[in-house]
Amino acid sequence: MTSMDARFGDATRTVPLPNPWNLNAYLAAVAAHRGRSIGLHTAAKALVNEIGCGGGGLWVARKHDDLIIYDAEATDRNADHIILHEVGHMLLGHGTRESDRRAPAPPALALMLPSVSPQSVEHVLGRREFGVDREREAEVFADMTMVYATLPQRRNRSFRLFGRGK
């Protein structure tokens, strides 16, 4: 397995951070890279927790698109972090193992997204399904993305380990 920093670098080279930073532009670039649209939806934190997502968000992969559901009461900055955490799972290749697949869709999903057919859901991935290592990777991805989004503008921005030049 490659190191975490190398995987982060690969992710940001694959889908560069927009300059100036714009979450919607970044989500559009991630969606274009993946060939799947990404929809954002809010839900009551109690429902998100019921699915096992104590961090306030989850990723729902359907046959042709992805949905990110996050706590409706999250502040702007916290909501962005939750969204970037789920994007981290996508770009770092989490959710590709057969063991990540969860069927059927949990009943709370119907309460969160009543217009979504349970048959269209390929997997619902929250903290329980990803495990400690992949959760840590996604958390660091979100943290680093938010840090780099606030740095002074540069022509090409990508992750570099703090203290390392190049």
Structure, briefly:
With 166 residues, the protein is of the alpha+beta class. The protein has helices at residues 4-14, 23-34, 45-50, 76-91, 107-112, 127-150; strands at residues 37-43, 57-62, 65-71, 121-125.
Could you characterize the architecture of this molecule?
With 166 residues, the protein is of the alpha+beta class. It has one domain. The protein contains 6 helices and 4 strands, in the order ααβαββααβα. The protein has helices at 4-14, 23-34, 45-50, 76-91, 107-112, 127-150; strands at 37-43, 57-62, 65-71, 121-125. A 4-stranded mixed β-sheet has the order 1-3-2-4. α4 packs across α6. The protein starts with a helix and ends in a 16-residue tail after the last helix. Residues 161-166 have low confidence and may be disordered.
